Amino acid sequence: MVAPSTLKAWLRDGAELAILDAREEGEFGASHLFWAVPCPLSQAEFRAPLLLPRRDVRVVCTDGGEGLAARLAAVLATLGCTDVQVLEGGTPAWQAAGYELFSGVNVPSKAFGEWVEHHYETPSVDAAELAAMQAAGADLLVVDSRPMAEFHAMSIPGGINVPGAELAYRVPGMLARPGTTVVVNCAGRTRSILGAESLRRAGLPNRVVALRNGTMGWELAGFRCSRGRNESFAPGIPADAAETFSRAESFAGAAGAGRIDRAGLAALRAEPGRTTYLLDVRDPTEFATGHLPGAINAPGGQLVQATDNWVAVRGARIVLVDDTGTRSAMTAGWLRQLGGWEVSCLRMDSHEALETGPVLPRLPDALRPAVPRIAPDAVRGGEVAVVDLARSLAFRAGHIPGAVWGVRTRLDAVAARLPPGRPVAVAAPSDDLAALGAADLRGLGIADVAVLEGGTAAWKAAGFPLEADRTDPPDAACIDAYLRPYDRNSGVEEAMRAYLAWEIDLVHAVERDGDAPFGAW
């Protein structure tokens, strides 16, 4: 056990430290420590190895006082972690000690975005101003800095999808005239701010502004977002890649980011007692085409604005990889200003031996339960009950008819809903996760349980129908996800306003907390 005062001191001692919160994302989002990273107990066997490249790093597990942290610590021990503590009393004890708690997710990154706006005085326009410019036929390029899935769901009319770190790499070549105004948007505030400021820091001569409050602000102002669009940047290496790299390298160097070669990377990885992350910041389709062995895909702009999705260890070293240098350099410059890591850039050599395809988390063989498999054909008749462990939002979007949704570590309530005496098949995004869920159900007394091979994806590939229901599970049951305003079934406008107010207030909460070294590179 570690007392809150001890952990507070550890955050400031300069040594490597990871704080992992064992609760589900929705529970984590209600109240957590600033530098805590979600590592839900239901996904820990898969998420922890990505978050902790070095198993002997100092780790503190926390929760909301329910006892989940101790269970997470036990899982980490089975994965080979050797320096694991539990925060005594969890978040309630942290607050009782007089320390700050935060709501929301990706909090350090979001707070950093607000800091960037204040520090660099990033210009912006609101929805009414942008609509007036469009109506007047102004020379505009509207670019959306979010991943394609979010852009497809809702976008500013006339916008083009250019996610995060692609902006400084792609936008200069998309502009034919110096008089074109570039407007960068996201769903709310901070990805717009980082995107616009990236173009400004990269020396784009055009006027660049962020769309204040993004698509939420657009809809709150009474305008309608487009839906279902896929307009994006042209693939391939831009003709001006050498020029964008030169400007990006200057930005990264000014922030203290380094540049290393393969020998330097090998030396970092071989050094005992230090953690090194190898993150490929290119677009996911490029990553799948070929990447360095051991690299994890973390698209640059999303990495800066959701750093805790990939990096948990404070004081670690981060090596960023891409092919032409611009995206890694821009990302490195921002991560250095976010603070807390040594950051270097590495350029890929086209002649190197590369791996292809996505990197999927795998369960160590020693932890994989022996559970029988069942094919989709055998489930189709309805005689086998299906338990689905997908994310709640994915389940809403499409699931096997009659399937019951649940969180792997909360299956007691699911077991009570299953028809007695009927065989059970467990579907999940991976067969390994399904096997763990099946083992958990066995522990609850359900003997006849199997893994549905390939899960819902295999069911769909076989041509069998899916059913969708936005209300199943209901909002209150989605503990595995921190619901965005437009994921909700009611109170959407109120949630949008609350989210935007939350982002704006983060700067003040961070000042009270005192542990964010923004800009101190």
Evaluate the radius of gyration: 23 Å
Number of strands: 20
Number of helices: 22
Shape designation? globular
- For this structure, the CATH topology of the largest domain is Oxidized Rhodanese, domain 1
Mean pLDDT: 95
CATH architecture of the largest domain: 3-Layer(aba) Sandwich
Give the tally of structural domains: 4
Please summarize the sheet with the most strands: 5 strands, mixed
CATH superfamily of the largest domain: Rhodanese-like domain
Distance between the termini: 33 Å
| Portion in beta strands | 5-15%
Helix content: 25-40%
Unreliable residue stretches:
none
Structural class: alpha/beta
CATH level 1 class label of the largest domain: Alpha Beta
Q: Any overview of this molecule?
A:
The chain is α/β, with parallel strands linked by helices. It has 4 domains: 101 residues, Rhodanese-like domain (Oxidized Rhodanese, domain 1), CATH 3.40.250.10; 132 residues, Rhodanese-like domain (Oxidized Rhodanese, domain 1), CATH 3.40.250; 100 residues, Rhodanese-like domain (Oxidized Rhodanese, domain 1, 3-Layer(aba) Sandwich); 110 residues, 3-Layer(aba) Sandwich (Oxidized Rhodanese, domain 1), CATH 3.40.250.10. The protein has 22 helices and 20 strands. Strands 1, 2, 3, 4 and 13 form a 5-stranded mixed sheet that branches. The chain has a 5-stranded parallel sheet with strand order 5-9-8-6-7. α6 crosses α22. The protein is globular, with a radius of gyration of 23 Å. It starts with a helix and ends in an 8-residue tail after the last helix.
